[in-house]
Task: inverse folding
């Protein structure tokens, strides 16, 4: 686990931009909406994809999030998402296209293109949400939008303790290396398994201690909130301006 | 007059049979600062968890005027603030400010009052400018100060700290001692750090194998080298107790 990639996340761009200052609920609904439009658009309805891309570009420009930031962050997720789409041209039946050593179907290629477009648009929406909204704010928005409380709670703890656990894993890895551990073949990977077990047990014990600490401060099953979100006219405006053209293009295309 | 802590024959055994407390008798008056000293495994942390009814053994225990095990635990936890040894266990909210607000909100305080308490507690530990940081962005010393603030924001009448100086560098440790010295509360400090005990607490109890084996003014207790050695404790080499002004 690399700590570097963990620390490179968070709010980017201009924190004072009109997008950053929107209610997190507006951003969550708006950007998730773009994803929904992209995902639900049929094959070959390219204008709808173009409209989604344009909407994302405008939001990114307003928030002053640079394409470089978007690319570096999307790069972490995209290979995983695109990996699945890569097989489609090989398994899909249809008119064969000869690509040197392999033969793929034309329908498959078209599917690959649209699936990739959907994946890229979805990933960029998520990245943009992450770059304009702090993670606690996203959680807060989810909670207020009545997402299942348990899931929000789990996400909150994951975010809080990811760094702690990553640190622990790094220390254990260093301790292994310090004692000359340099695996050369699969059989020597046993030590990694032990580290994982130890890490799991430590995390479990920590969970118990955190629970005690929460009880000690009067916790009663509900997560109290200090800040109140306010959905203002500019939030409604943002959603309207974003949704109207997208839905129009989506229906016409 | 009621005591801050009044324990008689407190016993507790862990499910695996290990005795945590083996008949603890302890009285702490309001306004006192008491150090709980003892080797590893003496039952210090077990005792601390009892003060908040997070563990319940047999025997009699009254804390901050409430009978543990009989009166409402909500009241008890509002009156007794526990600061855990590892601040990562205690700071679980995404930002410092939200973490400090967690306790007062659970107590049902109004929002303006919560804001007030948070600001006041942050000022006490001199962490005001870190209010919107995430706990993982702070150093250990800063996290420990925030953990103390998180408990202070609940306005407890009794403050219980578990190894507050563990793993701190000398300067951070000194600053933490100064911070604690400025807090005007009844305090129970569980520690191995004998010089810290000498500096902050007028009274010390020595816990060993689950019982109180000594209870005396801190300086008197720390001067008894034989007693300390019998319970695996010793002052740091070259440390001169007479240079520390007793509280």
Result:
């Amino acid at each position: 686990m690399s700590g570097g990639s963990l620390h490179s996340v968070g709010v980017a761009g201009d924190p004072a931009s009109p997008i950053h200052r929107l209610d997190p609920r507006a951003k969550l609904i708006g950007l998730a909406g773009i994803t929904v439009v992209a995902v639900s658009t049929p094959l070959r309805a390219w204008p709808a994809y173009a409209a989604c891309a344009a909407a994302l570009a405008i939001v990114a420009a307003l928030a002053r999030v640079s394409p470089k930031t978007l690319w570096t962050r999307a790069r972490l997720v995209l290979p995983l998402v695109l990996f699945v789409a890569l097989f489609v041209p090989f398994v899909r039946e249809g008119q064969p296209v000869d690509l040197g050593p392999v033969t793929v179907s034309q329908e498959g290629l078209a599917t690959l293109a649209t699936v990739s477009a959907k994946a890229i648009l979805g990933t960029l929406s998520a990245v943009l949400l992450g770059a304009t909204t702090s993670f606690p704010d996203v959680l807060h928005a989810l909670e207020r939008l009545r997402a299942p409380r348990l899931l929000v709670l789990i996400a909150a703890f994951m975010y809080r303790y990811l760094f702690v656990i990553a640190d622990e894993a790094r220390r254990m890895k260093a301790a292994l290396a310090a004692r000359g551990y340099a695996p050369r073949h699969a059989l020597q990977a046993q030590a990694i398994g032990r580290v994982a077990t130890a890490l799991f047990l430590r995390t479990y014990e920590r969970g118990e201690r955190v629970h005690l600490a929460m009880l000690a401060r009067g916790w009663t099953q509900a997560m109290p909130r200090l800040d109140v979100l306010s959905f203002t006219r500019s939030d409604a405006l943002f959603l309207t301006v974003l949704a109207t053209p997208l839905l129009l293009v989506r229906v016409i295309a | 007059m009621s005591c801050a802590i009044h324990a008689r024959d407190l016993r507790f055994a862990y499910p695996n049979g290990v005795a945590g407390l083996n008949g603890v008798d302890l009285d702490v008056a309001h306004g006192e600062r008491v150090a709980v000293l003892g080797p590893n495994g003496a039952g210090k942390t077990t005792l601390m968890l009892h003060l908040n009814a997070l563990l319940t053994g047999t025997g009699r225990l009254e804390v901050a005027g409430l009978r543990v095990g009989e009166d409402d635990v909500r009241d008890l936890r509002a009156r007794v603030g526990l600061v855990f040894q590892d601040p990562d266990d205690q700071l679980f909210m995404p930002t410092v400010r939200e973490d400090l607000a967690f306790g007062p909100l659970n107590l049902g305080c109004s929002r303006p009052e919560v804001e007030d308490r948070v600001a006041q507690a942050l000022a006490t530990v001199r962490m005001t400018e870190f209010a919107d940081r995430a706990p993982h962005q702070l150093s250990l010393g800063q996290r420990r100060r925030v953990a103390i603030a998180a408990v202070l924001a609940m306005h407890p009448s009794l403050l219980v700290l578990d190894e507050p100086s563990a793993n701190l560098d000398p300067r951070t440790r000194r600053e933490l001692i100064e911070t604690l010295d400025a807090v005007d509360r009844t305090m129970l400090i569980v520690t191995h750090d004998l010089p810290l005990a000498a500096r902050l607490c007028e009274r010390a109890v020595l816990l060993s194998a689950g019982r109180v084996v000594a209870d005396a003014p801190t300086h008197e207790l720390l001067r008894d080298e034989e007693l300390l050695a019998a319970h695996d404790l010793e002052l740091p080499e070259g440390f001169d107790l007479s240079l520390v002004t007793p509280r």
